[in-house]
Amino acid sequence: MLLILKAAIQVLNFEEIYHEYWKRIFRLCMGYVNDHDAAKDLSQGNICGCFSEIAKVQVGSISWNLDL
Predict the structure, then answer these.
(1) pLDDT tens sequence across 8-37
(2) Model-level pTM?
(3) Closest by alpha carbon to 47, among 63, 23, 11?
(4) Which helix or strand (DSSP H or E) is residue 58 part of?
(5) Rounded to whole angstroms, how far apart are CA atoms 54 and 56?
(6) Could you report how far apart the first and last alpha carbons of the chain are, in Å?
């Protein structure tokens, strides 16, 4: 089970996630701060935070930390 989860997470690499969601997250951040540089920083921080959480998979009451 653990090997399957690790393989699935490796498929979702950072670059794919970044390109898929960056524009949407950036527009949302711009709506809040109305500052291009601050919105870029917030967007990057959110994407990095989400990517680091992908390694934590919760199955029922069992939490797996896959330490990628």
Answers:
(1) 555 566 777 788 889 999 999 999 999 999
(2) 0.60
(3) 23
(4) strand 56-59
(5) 5
(6) 16
